[in-house]
Amino acid sequence: MPPIYVTGHRNPDTDSIAAAIGYAELKRRLEPGEEYVAVRLGELATQTRWVLERSGAPEPQLLPHVMLRACDVMQPSFPTISGDEPIRVAGMAMARAGLDLVPVLEQDGTLAGVVTERALARRYIRETRETSTLEEAPTDAQAIVEVLGGELVAGRPDARLAGRVWVHSMDVSSPSGISGGDVVVVGNRADAQRLAIGLGAALLVISNGSLPSEEVLALARAQGTAIVVSPLDSYVSGRMITLAAPCRAFMENDPLTVSTDYLLADVSEQIKEIHYGAAVAVDAQRHPVGLITRSDLVAPTRRRVLLVDHAEQSQSVPGVEQAEIVEILDHHHVGSIETRVPVTATFDPVGSTASLVVERFRQNGMEPSRPTAVMLLGAVLSDTVILNSPTTTERDRAVVDYLERVLATDAEEFGREMFESAADVSEVSAEEIIARDAKRYQVGGGQEICIAQIEVVGNGLLDRQDELLEAMRRTRARDRLALYALMVTDILSKGTHLLIAGDTPAIARSFGTSAHDGMIELPGVMSRKKQVAPRLLATM
Question: What is the domain extent for residue 365?
Fold first, then answer.
Protein backbone atom coordinates (compact mmCIF):
# COMPACT_ATOMS: atom_id res chain seq x y z
CA MET A 1 0.00 0.00 0.00
CA PRO A 2 1.19 3.57 -0.64
CA PRO A 3 2.20 5.67 2.39
CA ILE A 4 -0.23 7.81 4.34
CA TYR A 5 0.92 11.42 4.37
CA VAL A 6 0.27 13.24 7.64
CA THR A 7 -0.01 16.89 6.74
CA GLY A 8 -0.85 20.19 8.35
CA HIS A 9 -1.96 23.28 6.44
CA ARG A 10 -0.23 25.49 3.90
CA ASN A 11 2.09 28.17 5.28
CA PRO A 12 2.75 25.77 8.17
CA ASP A 13 3.22 27.04 11.71
CA THR A 14 4.86 25.20 14.57
CA ASP A 15 1.65 23.46 15.64
CA SER A 16 0.99 22.20 12.11
CA ILE A 17 4.49 20.74 11.76
CA ALA A 18 4.70 19.31 15.28
CA ALA A 19 1.25 17.73 15.06
CA ALA A 20 2.20 16.06 11.79
CA ILE A 21 5.46 14.72 13.24
CA GLY A 22 3.85 13.60 16.49
CA TYR A 23 0.75 11.99 15.03
CA ALA A 24 2.76 10.19 12.34
CA GLU A 25 4.98 8.71 15.06
CA LEU A 26 2.00 7.59 17.12
CA LYS A 27 0.18 6.06 14.14
CA ARG A 28 3.30 4.16 13.06
CA ARG A 29 3.51 2.62 16.54
CA LEU A 30 -0.19 1.80 16.64
CA GLU A 31 -0.35 0.46 13.07
CA PRO A 32 3.05 -1.05 12.19
CA GLY A 33 1.65 -2.42 8.95
CA GLU A 34 1.11 1.10 7.58
CA GLU A 35 3.67 3.72 6.59
CA TYR A 36 2.79 7.13 8.03
CA VAL A 37 4.96 9.99 6.73
CA ALA A 38 4.95 13.49 8.20
CA VAL A 39 5.08 16.13 5.47
CA ARG A 40 4.89 19.90 5.12
CA LEU A 41 3.11 22.01 2.52
CA GLY A 42 5.36 25.05 2.51
CA GLU A 43 8.50 26.69 3.82
CA LEU A 44 9.10 26.57 7.55
CA ALA A 45 8.85 29.67 9.71
CA THR A 46 11.87 30.82 11.73
CA GLN A 47 10.21 29.76 14.97
CA THR A 48 9.47 26.28 13.66
CA ARG A 49 13.06 25.84 12.45
CA TRP A 50 14.29 26.84 15.91
CA VAL A 51 12.09 24.19 17.55
CA LEU A 52 13.20 21.56 15.01
CA GLU A 53 16.87 22.31 15.70
CA ARG A 54 16.28 22.32 19.45
CA SER A 55 14.45 18.98 19.31
CA GLY A 56 16.66 17.18 16.82
CA ALA A 57 13.57 15.98 14.94
CA PRO A 58 14.02 15.61 11.16
CA GLU A 59 12.43 18.24 8.95
CA PRO A 60 9.34 16.84 7.21
CA GLN A 61 9.66 16.48 3.46
CA LEU A 62 7.82 18.92 1.21
CA LEU A 63 4.67 17.51 -0.39
CA PRO A 64 3.78 19.69 -3.39
CA HIS A 65 0.49 17.93 -4.14
CA VAL A 66 -1.40 14.63 -3.78
CA MET A 67 -2.57 14.32 -7.37
CA LEU A 68 -1.85 10.92 -8.87
CA ARG A 69 1.56 10.60 -10.51
CA ALA A 70 3.02 8.04 -12.86
CA CYS A 71 4.87 6.33 -10.00
CA ASP A 72 1.60 5.86 -8.10
CA VAL A 73 0.07 3.58 -10.73
CA MET A 74 2.96 2.22 -12.79
CA GLN A 75 3.94 -1.45 -12.90
CA PRO A 76 7.48 -1.54 -11.47
CA SER A 77 8.17 -5.09 -12.73
CA PHE A 78 8.11 -5.74 -16.46
CA PRO A 79 10.21 -7.52 -19.09
CA THR A 80 12.83 -5.75 -21.19
CA ILE A 81 14.95 -6.93 -24.10
CA SER A 82 18.05 -5.73 -25.92
CA GLY A 83 17.85 -4.45 -29.45
CA ASP A 84 19.92 -7.38 -30.73
CA GLU A 85 17.71 -10.11 -29.28
CA PRO A 86 15.42 -12.05 -31.64
CA ILE A 87 11.93 -10.77 -32.19
CA ARG A 88 10.63 -14.11 -30.91
CA VAL A 89 12.07 -13.24 -27.48
CA ALA A 90 10.03 -10.03 -27.50
CA GLY A 91 6.86 -11.88 -28.44
CA MET A 92 7.35 -14.52 -25.76
CA ALA A 93 8.07 -11.83 -23.14
CA MET A 94 4.87 -9.98 -24.03
CA ALA A 95 2.85 -13.19 -23.89
CA ARG A 96 4.18 -14.17 -20.46
CA ALA A 97 3.60 -10.69 -19.01
CA GLY A 98 0.23 -10.17 -20.66
CA LEU A 99 1.44 -6.91 -22.26
CA ASP A 100 1.01 -5.35 -25.68
CA LEU A 101 4.58 -4.07 -25.77
CA VAL A 102 8.05 -4.65 -24.38
CA PRO A 103 10.75 -1.96 -23.91
CA VAL A 104 13.94 -2.34 -25.93
CA LEU A 105 17.20 -1.31 -24.25
CA GLU A 106 20.51 0.03 -25.47
CA GLN A 107 23.65 -1.65 -24.18
CA ASP A 108 23.89 0.91 -21.37
CA GLY A 109 20.37 0.09 -20.18
CA THR A 110 18.72 3.24 -21.53
CA LEU A 111 15.47 3.07 -23.47
CA ALA A 112 15.92 2.61 -27.22
CA GLY A 113 12.28 2.00 -28.14
CA VAL A 114 9.43 -0.48 -27.77
CA VAL A 115 8.34 -3.54 -29.71
CA THR A 116 4.57 -3.86 -29.91
CA GLU A 117 2.20 -6.67 -30.81
CA ARG A 118 0.89 -4.48 -33.59
CA ALA A 119 4.35 -4.29 -35.18
CA LEU A 120 4.68 -8.06 -35.05
CA ALA A 121 1.21 -8.63 -36.46
CA ARG A 122 1.73 -6.19 -39.33
CA ARG A 123 5.02 -7.79 -40.28
CA TYR A 124 3.77 -11.35 -40.34
CA ILE A 125 0.38 -10.63 -41.88
CA ARG A 126 2.16 -8.74 -44.64
CA GLU A 127 4.39 -11.75 -45.27
CA THR A 128 1.48 -14.19 -45.72
CA ARG A 129 1.26 -13.33 -49.45
CA GLU A 130 4.92 -12.56 -50.07
CA THR A 131 8.23 -14.30 -49.77
CA SER A 132 9.61 -13.96 -46.26
CA THR A 133 12.75 -11.88 -46.11
CA LEU A 134 15.46 -10.63 -43.78
CA GLU A 135 16.24 -7.65 -46.00
CA GLU A 136 14.76 -5.13 -43.51
CA ALA A 137 16.24 -6.92 -40.53
CA PRO A 138 19.71 -8.41 -41.20
CA THR A 139 20.17 -11.32 -38.81
CA ASP A 140 23.19 -13.25 -37.48
CA ALA A 141 23.38 -16.95 -38.17
CA GLN A 142 23.78 -17.63 -34.45
CA ALA A 143 20.42 -15.98 -33.72
CA ILE A 144 18.76 -18.35 -36.18
CA VAL A 145 20.53 -21.29 -34.56
CA GLU A 146 19.17 -20.26 -31.15
CA VAL A 147 15.60 -19.71 -32.33
CA LEU A 148 15.57 -23.08 -34.07
CA GLY A 149 17.29 -24.84 -31.19
CA GLY A 150 19.59 -26.24 -33.88
CA GLU A 151 23.29 -26.73 -34.51
CA LEU A 152 25.65 -24.82 -36.79
CA VAL A 153 27.67 -27.44 -38.67
CA ALA A 154 29.29 -25.20 -41.27
CA GLY A 155 30.04 -21.49 -41.58
CA ARG A 156 30.52 -18.67 -39.07
CA PRO A 157 28.02 -17.86 -36.31
CA ASP A 158 28.39 -14.11 -36.95
CA ALA A 159 27.53 -14.44 -40.63
CA ARG A 160 25.10 -11.61 -41.44
CA LEU A 161 22.04 -12.74 -43.39
CA ALA A 162 19.85 -10.29 -45.30
CA GLY A 163 18.23 -12.29 -48.09
CA ARG A 164 14.88 -13.94 -48.70
CA VAL A 165 13.77 -17.08 -46.88
CA TRP A 166 12.73 -20.12 -48.96
CA VAL A 167 11.36 -23.54 -48.09
CA HIS A 168 12.51 -25.69 -51.03
CA SER A 169 10.12 -28.58 -51.63
CA MET A 170 10.09 -28.74 -55.45
CA ASP A 171 11.93 -31.14 -57.74
CA VAL A 172 15.43 -29.85 -58.44
CA SER A 173 14.62 -29.71 -62.13
CA SER A 174 11.91 -27.10 -61.52
CA PRO A 175 12.68 -23.36 -61.83
CA SER A 176 13.74 -21.76 -58.53
CA GLY A 177 13.74 -18.17 -57.29
CA ILE A 178 16.70 -18.78 -54.98
CA SER A 179 19.53 -16.29 -55.48
CA GLY A 180 22.74 -15.23 -53.80
CA GLY A 181 22.49 -14.40 -50.10
CA ASP A 182 19.18 -16.20 -49.51
CA VAL A 183 18.27 -18.59 -46.69
CA VAL A 184 16.96 -21.95 -47.82
CA VAL A 185 15.19 -24.63 -45.78
CA VAL A 186 15.36 -28.16 -47.19
CA GLY A 187 14.78 -31.68 -45.99
CA ASN A 188 17.11 -34.68 -46.23
CA ARG A 189 17.43 -34.40 -50.02
CA ALA A 190 21.06 -34.10 -51.01
CA ASP A 191 20.19 -32.92 -54.56
CA ALA A 192 18.12 -30.01 -53.19
CA GLN A 193 20.89 -29.17 -50.75
CA ARG A 194 23.49 -29.07 -53.55
CA LEU A 195 21.14 -26.96 -55.70
CA ALA A 196 20.67 -24.33 -52.96
CA ILE A 197 24.41 -24.11 -52.37
CA GLY A 198 25.05 -23.85 -56.08
CA LEU A 199 22.53 -21.00 -56.45
CA GLY A 200 24.46 -18.98 -53.85
CA ALA A 201 22.43 -19.53 -50.66
CA ALA A 202 24.10 -17.84 -47.69
CA LEU A 203 22.50 -20.25 -45.22
CA LEU A 204 21.17 -23.76 -45.65
CA VAL A 205 18.79 -25.04 -42.96
CA ILE A 206 18.30 -28.81 -42.99
CA SER A 207 15.08 -29.79 -41.21
CA ASN A 208 14.04 -32.74 -39.03
CA GLY A 209 17.54 -33.15 -37.58
CA SER A 210 18.95 -34.60 -40.81
CA LEU A 211 22.73 -34.37 -41.07
CA PRO A 212 24.38 -33.26 -44.33
CA SER A 213 26.76 -35.60 -46.13
CA GLU A 214 30.49 -34.93 -46.26
CA GLU A 215 30.05 -34.05 -49.91
CA VAL A 216 27.48 -31.35 -49.08
CA LEU A 217 29.64 -30.03 -46.22
CA ALA A 218 32.65 -29.75 -48.49
CA LEU A 219 30.60 -27.97 -51.14
CA ALA A 220 29.24 -25.53 -48.52
CA ARG A 221 32.72 -24.72 -47.24
CA ALA A 222 33.93 -24.12 -50.77
CA GLN A 223 31.00 -21.79 -51.56
CA GLY A 224 31.02 -20.03 -48.13
CA THR A 225 27.54 -21.30 -47.27
CA ALA A 226 26.61 -21.79 -43.60
CA ILE A 227 24.63 -24.88 -42.64
CA VAL A 228 22.31 -25.27 -39.67
CA VAL A 229 20.69 -28.55 -38.67
CA SER A 230 17.20 -27.88 -37.27
CA PRO A 231 15.25 -30.38 -35.14
CA LEU A 232 11.99 -28.87 -36.49
CA ASP A 233 10.15 -29.76 -39.68
CA SER A 234 10.57 -27.65 -42.81
CA TYR A 235 7.41 -25.57 -42.37
CA VAL A 236 8.09 -24.65 -38.75
CA SER A 237 11.77 -24.03 -39.45
CA GLY A 238 10.92 -21.61 -42.24
CA ARG A 239 8.42 -19.78 -40.06
CA MET A 240 10.85 -19.52 -37.15
CA ILE A 241 13.75 -18.08 -39.16
CA THR A 242 12.20 -14.64 -39.53
CA LEU A 243 11.48 -14.69 -35.79
CA ALA A 244 15.25 -14.58 -35.30
CA ALA A 245 15.40 -11.04 -36.72
CA PRO A 246 16.66 -8.48 -34.18
CA CYS A 247 14.10 -6.44 -32.25
CA ARG A 248 15.78 -3.20 -33.20
CA ALA A 249 14.46 -3.57 -36.75
CA PHE A 250 10.82 -3.58 -35.60
CA MET A 251 10.77 -1.28 -32.60
CA GLU A 252 9.16 2.13 -32.38
CA ASN A 253 12.00 4.58 -31.86
CA ASP A 254 9.97 7.32 -30.16
CA PRO A 255 7.70 5.65 -27.61
CA LEU A 256 5.49 7.55 -25.18
CA THR A 257 7.58 8.22 -22.06
CA VAL A 258 6.98 10.02 -18.76
CA SER A 259 8.95 10.80 -15.63
CA THR A 260 7.89 9.14 -12.40
CA ASP A 261 6.49 12.44 -11.06
CA TYR A 262 4.46 13.14 -14.19
CA LEU A 263 0.81 13.85 -13.37
CA LEU A 264 -1.41 11.01 -14.46
CA ALA A 265 -4.08 13.45 -15.63
CA ASP A 266 -1.59 14.90 -18.12
CA VAL A 267 -0.78 11.59 -19.81
CA SER A 268 -3.90 9.43 -19.43
CA GLU A 269 -5.51 10.60 -22.69
CA GLN A 270 -2.31 9.92 -24.63
CA ILE A 271 -2.13 6.42 -23.16
CA LYS A 272 -5.75 5.76 -24.16
CA GLU A 273 -5.21 7.01 -27.70
CA ILE A 274 -1.85 5.46 -28.60
CA HIS A 275 -2.22 2.12 -30.36
CA TYR A 276 -0.18 0.10 -27.84
CA GLY A 277 -1.98 1.73 -24.89
CA ALA A 278 0.98 2.32 -22.60
CA ALA A 279 3.67 4.76 -21.50
CA VAL A 280 7.17 3.91 -20.29
CA ALA A 281 8.22 5.65 -17.07
CA VAL A 282 11.91 6.55 -17.16
CA ASP A 283 14.37 8.02 -14.67
CA ALA A 284 16.63 11.01 -15.24
CA GLN A 285 19.12 8.84 -17.18
CA ARG A 286 16.31 7.43 -19.36
CA HIS A 287 16.38 4.00 -17.77
CA PRO A 288 12.91 2.37 -17.81
CA VAL A 289 11.53 2.07 -14.25
CA GLY A 290 7.85 1.36 -14.86
CA LEU A 291 5.04 0.76 -17.32
CA ILE A 292 1.64 2.46 -17.30
CA THR A 293 -1.02 0.66 -19.34
CA ARG A 294 -4.68 1.37 -20.01
CA SER A 295 -5.67 -1.11 -17.31
CA ASP A 296 -3.63 0.86 -14.75
CA LEU A 297 -5.87 3.87 -15.42
CA VAL A 298 -9.00 2.02 -14.32
CA ALA A 299 -9.89 2.92 -10.70
CA PRO A 300 -6.29 3.63 -9.60
CA THR A 301 -5.53 3.64 -5.88
CA ARG A 302 -5.72 7.22 -4.63
CA ARG A 303 -2.96 8.79 -2.56
CA ARG A 304 -3.82 8.79 1.13
CA VAL A 305 -3.65 11.72 3.52
CA LEU A 306 -4.31 12.32 7.20
CA LEU A 307 -5.08 15.98 7.92
CA VAL A 308 -3.99 17.68 11.13
CA ASP A 309 -4.55 21.25 12.30
CA HIS A 310 -6.94 22.14 9.46
CA ALA A 311 -10.08 21.06 7.63
CA GLU A 312 -10.33 23.73 4.92
CA GLN A 313 -9.76 22.66 1.33
CA SER A 314 -8.16 26.02 0.53
CA GLN A 315 -5.62 25.45 3.33
CA SER A 316 -4.91 21.83 2.46
CA VAL A 317 -2.55 20.12 0.07
CA PRO A 318 -3.28 20.74 -3.64
CA GLY A 319 -5.23 17.84 -5.08
CA VAL A 320 -6.76 16.85 -1.74
CA GLU A 321 -10.14 16.51 -3.48
CA GLN A 322 -8.63 13.63 -5.50
CA ALA A 323 -7.05 11.91 -2.49
CA GLU A 324 -8.39 9.47 0.06
CA ILE A 325 -8.65 11.27 3.40
CA VAL A 326 -8.23 8.65 6.13
CA GLU A 327 -8.62 10.90 9.22
CA ILE A 328 -8.85 14.51 10.38
CA LEU A 329 -7.48 15.77 13.70
CA ASP A 330 -8.10 19.45 14.32
CA HIS A 331 -8.85 22.07 16.96
CA HIS A 332 -10.57 24.54 14.62
CA HIS A 333 -14.13 24.68 13.28
CA VAL A 334 -15.48 22.08 10.87
CA GLY A 335 -14.18 23.20 7.47
CA SER A 336 -14.95 22.65 3.79
CA ILE A 337 -13.14 19.34 3.34
CA GLU A 338 -15.37 16.67 1.79
CA THR A 339 -14.73 12.92 2.01
CA ARG A 340 -16.05 10.12 -0.19
CA VAL A 341 -16.52 7.68 2.67
CA PRO A 342 -17.03 8.16 6.43
CA VAL A 343 -13.74 8.85 8.23
CA THR A 344 -12.67 9.46 11.80
CA ALA A 345 -12.75 13.23 12.29
CA THR A 346 -11.93 15.02 15.53
CA PHE A 347 -12.69 18.71 16.04
CA ASP A 348 -11.83 19.40 19.66
CA PRO A 349 -11.77 22.96 21.08
CA VAL A 350 -8.35 23.06 22.70
CA GLY A 351 -5.57 25.56 22.19
CA SER A 352 -3.35 23.41 20.01
CA THR A 353 -3.59 20.32 17.83
CA ALA A 354 -0.38 19.18 19.53
CA SER A 355 -2.37 18.90 22.77
CA LEU A 356 -4.68 16.42 21.08
CA VAL A 357 -1.70 14.42 19.84
CA VAL A 358 -0.18 14.22 23.33
CA GLU A 359 -3.54 13.12 24.74
CA ARG A 360 -3.70 10.35 22.13
CA PHE A 361 -0.23 9.15 23.17
CA ARG A 362 -1.28 9.00 26.80
CA GLN A 363 -4.62 7.33 26.05
CA ASN A 364 -2.69 4.52 24.35
CA GLY A 365 -0.22 4.17 27.20
CA MET A 366 2.65 5.52 25.13
CA GLU A 367 5.17 8.32 25.52
CA PRO A 368 6.47 10.30 22.54
CA SER A 369 10.16 10.11 21.73
CA ARG A 370 12.21 12.99 23.13
CA PRO A 371 12.57 14.86 19.78
CA THR A 372 8.82 14.56 19.21
CA ALA A 373 8.02 15.61 22.78
CA VAL A 374 10.11 18.78 22.35
CA MET A 375 8.29 19.55 19.10
CA LEU A 376 4.90 19.05 20.75
CA LEU A 377 5.82 21.27 23.69
CA GLY A 378 6.92 24.04 21.34
CA ALA A 379 3.68 23.70 19.40
CA VAL A 380 1.41 24.01 22.43
CA LEU A 381 3.35 27.01 23.73
CA SER A 382 3.30 28.60 20.27
CA ASP A 383 -0.42 28.25 19.61
CA THR A 384 -1.39 29.29 23.15
CA VAL A 385 1.27 32.06 23.32
CA ILE A 386 2.84 30.43 26.38
CA LEU A 387 -0.62 29.57 27.76
CA ASN A 388 -1.74 33.24 27.59
CA SER A 389 -4.11 33.01 24.63
CA PRO A 390 -7.86 32.98 25.34
CA THR A 391 -7.99 29.69 23.42
CA THR A 392 -5.94 28.04 26.18
CA THR A 393 -7.79 25.30 28.07
CA GLU A 394 -7.02 23.31 31.18
CA ARG A 395 -6.21 20.40 28.90
CA ASP A 396 -3.46 22.45 27.26
CA ARG A 397 -2.06 23.30 30.69
CA ALA A 398 -2.14 19.62 31.65
CA VAL A 399 -0.27 18.72 28.46
CA VAL A 400 2.42 21.31 29.18
CA ASP A 401 2.78 20.05 32.77
CA TYR A 402 3.15 16.50 31.46
CA LEU A 403 5.78 17.47 28.87
CA GLU A 404 7.68 19.51 31.45
CA ARG A 405 8.01 16.36 33.57
CA VAL A 406 8.91 14.13 30.62
CA LEU A 407 11.57 16.54 29.33
CA ALA A 408 12.70 17.88 32.73
CA THR A 409 12.54 21.43 31.37
CA ASP A 410 10.99 24.79 32.26
CA ALA A 411 8.17 25.34 29.75
CA GLU A 412 7.87 29.11 30.28
CA GLU A 413 11.59 29.66 29.74
CA PHE A 414 11.50 27.39 26.68
CA GLY A 415 8.55 29.36 25.29
CA ARG A 416 10.20 32.74 25.76
CA GLU A 417 13.35 31.54 24.01
CA MET A 418 11.23 30.18 21.19
CA PHE A 419 9.31 33.43 20.62
CA GLU A 420 12.43 35.56 20.90
CA SER A 421 14.13 33.37 18.24
CA ALA A 422 11.59 34.54 15.68
CA ALA A 423 11.03 38.07 16.97
CA ASP A 424 13.67 39.77 14.80
CA VAL A 425 12.20 40.17 11.34
CA SER A 426 14.12 43.31 10.41
CA GLU A 427 15.84 41.49 7.52
CA VAL A 428 12.67 39.71 6.35
CA SER A 429 10.76 41.14 3.40
CA ALA A 430 7.23 42.45 3.86
CA GLU A 431 5.93 39.86 1.38
CA GLU A 432 7.40 37.04 3.45
CA ILE A 433 6.11 38.46 6.73
CA ILE A 434 2.50 38.70 5.54
CA ALA A 435 2.62 35.19 4.04
CA ARG A 436 4.53 33.42 6.82
CA ASP A 437 1.50 32.27 8.82
CA ALA A 438 -1.44 33.13 6.58
CA LYS A 439 -4.72 31.24 6.51
CA ARG A 440 -7.54 31.64 4.04
CA TYR A 441 -11.23 31.33 4.80
CA GLN A 442 -14.23 30.99 2.52
CA VAL A 443 -16.91 33.71 2.77
CA GLY A 444 -20.17 34.30 0.92
CA GLY A 445 -20.32 34.60 -2.85
CA GLY A 446 -17.40 32.22 -3.39
CA GLN A 447 -14.88 34.77 -2.13
CA GLU A 448 -11.98 34.31 0.27
CA ILE A 449 -10.35 36.36 3.00
CA CYS A 450 -6.85 35.89 4.35
CA ILE A 451 -5.78 36.39 7.97
CA ALA A 452 -2.06 36.26 8.73
CA GLN A 453 -0.42 36.49 12.12
CA ILE A 454 3.05 37.17 13.38
CA GLU A 455 4.13 37.13 17.02
CA VAL A 456 6.64 39.79 18.04
CA VAL A 457 8.35 41.12 21.13
CA GLY A 458 7.79 44.89 21.25
CA ASN A 459 6.42 47.26 18.61
CA GLY A 460 9.44 47.51 16.32
CA LEU A 461 7.66 45.86 13.40
CA LEU A 462 5.03 48.63 13.35
CA ASP A 463 7.69 50.99 12.00
CA ARG A 464 7.17 49.09 8.72
CA GLN A 465 3.38 49.56 8.76
CA ASP A 466 3.17 51.30 5.37
CA GLU A 467 5.40 48.69 3.73
CA LEU A 468 3.34 45.83 5.17
CA LEU A 469 0.03 47.41 4.12
CA GLU A 470 1.29 47.93 0.58
CA ALA A 471 2.36 44.27 0.34
CA MET A 472 -1.04 43.21 1.64
CA ARG A 473 -2.86 45.37 -0.91
CA ARG A 474 -0.80 43.90 -3.76
CA THR A 475 -1.48 40.35 -2.62
CA ARG A 476 -5.18 41.08 -2.13
CA ALA A 477 -5.48 42.45 -5.67
CA ARG A 478 -3.42 39.66 -7.22
CA ASP A 479 -5.38 36.87 -5.53
CA ARG A 480 -8.74 38.69 -5.74
CA LEU A 481 -9.34 38.44 -2.00
CA ALA A 482 -12.21 40.23 -0.29
CA LEU A 483 -9.92 41.12 2.61
CA TYR A 484 -6.33 40.72 3.78
CA ALA A 485 -5.58 41.12 7.49
CA LEU A 486 -2.32 40.85 9.43
CA MET A 487 -2.27 40.37 13.20
CA VAL A 488 0.92 41.76 14.74
CA THR A 489 0.69 40.15 18.19
CA ASP A 490 3.02 41.28 20.98
CA ILE A 491 3.50 38.40 23.42
CA LEU A 492 4.79 40.72 26.15
CA SER A 493 2.00 43.30 26.09
CA LYS A 494 -0.53 40.57 25.23
CA GLY A 495 -2.25 42.55 22.52
CA THR A 496 -2.53 42.85 18.74
CA HIS A 497 -2.27 45.57 16.14
CA LEU A 498 -4.50 44.51 13.24
CA LEU A 499 -3.47 45.78 9.79
CA ILE A 500 -6.27 45.74 7.19
CA ALA A 501 -6.25 45.78 3.39
CA GLY A 502 -9.93 46.07 2.61
CA ASP A 503 -12.98 47.72 4.20
CA THR A 504 -11.13 49.00 7.26
CA PRO A 505 -14.00 51.08 8.77
CA ALA A 506 -16.39 48.09 8.66
CA ILE A 507 -13.82 45.85 10.34
CA ALA A 508 -13.13 48.47 12.98
CA ARG A 509 -16.86 48.81 13.75
CA SER A 510 -17.11 45.02 14.19
CA PHE A 511 -14.57 45.35 17.03
CA GLY A 512 -16.31 48.42 18.46
CA THR A 513 -13.35 50.71 17.81
CA SER A 514 -11.87 52.91 15.10
CA ALA A 515 -9.01 52.54 12.65
CA HIS A 516 -6.00 54.76 12.11
CA ASP A 517 -4.12 54.58 8.80
CA GLY A 518 -5.28 51.03 8.08
CA MET A 519 -4.54 49.74 11.58
CA ILE A 520 -6.76 48.76 14.52
CA GLU A 521 -5.45 48.45 18.07
CA LEU A 522 -6.83 45.39 19.89
CA PRO A 523 -5.59 45.20 23.50
CA GLY A 524 -5.87 41.71 24.98
CA VAL A 525 -6.51 40.11 21.60
CA MET A 526 -4.09 37.27 20.82
CA SER A 527 -6.06 34.51 19.12
CA ARG A 528 -6.79 34.47 15.42
CA LYS A 529 -9.08 31.47 15.74
CA LYS A 530 -11.17 32.67 18.65
CA GLN A 531 -10.99 36.47 18.69
CA VAL A 532 -10.34 37.67 15.14
CA ALA A 533 -11.47 35.16 12.51
CA PRO A 534 -15.08 34.85 13.80
CA ARG A 535 -15.61 38.65 13.72
CA LEU A 536 -14.09 39.06 10.26
CA LEU A 537 -16.10 36.18 8.84
CA ALA A 538 -19.31 37.56 10.35
CA THR A 539 -18.58 41.04 8.96
CA MET A 540 -17.81 39.78 5.45
Answer: 4-68+302-421
Cα angle, residue 33 at apex, residues 28 and 34 outer, rounded to 5° = 55
State the DSSP code for 493.
Answer: T
450 and 366 assigned to the same domain? no
Query: Residue 506: what residue type?
Result: A
For residue 183, the number of C-alpha atoms closer than 13 Å in the C-beta half-sphere is 30
DSSP3 helix / strand / coil % (the chain, rounded to 5): 40, 20, 40
Distances (CA, A) of 99 to 25, 295, 512: 41, 10, 71
The beta strand positions in 201-356, using DSSP E, are: 203-206, 226-229, 257-259, 278-282, 288-293, 304-308, 324-330, 344-347
pLDDT tens readout for residues 160-183: 999 999 998 888 888 888 999 999
Point out the residues of the chain with pLDDT beneath 50.
none
Q: Examine the domain organization and report whether 213 and 164 are in the same domain.
A: yes
What pLDDT score was predicted for residue 171? Answer: 85
- pTM: predicted TM-score of the whole model, two decimal places: 0.70
pLDDT of residue 43: 92
In a domain, 42, yes or no: yes
Residues 260 and 309 placed together within one structural domain of the fold: no
- Whether residue 461 is contained in a domain is answered as yes
Q: What's the pLDDT at 341?
A: 81
Tell me phi and psi for residue 489, to 5 degrees.
Answer: -105, 120
Identify the pLDDT of residue 126: 60
Query: How many structural domains is the chain composed of?
Result: 4
CA dihedral 198, 199, 202, 206 (to 10 degrees): -70
pLDDT in the model for residue 127: 56
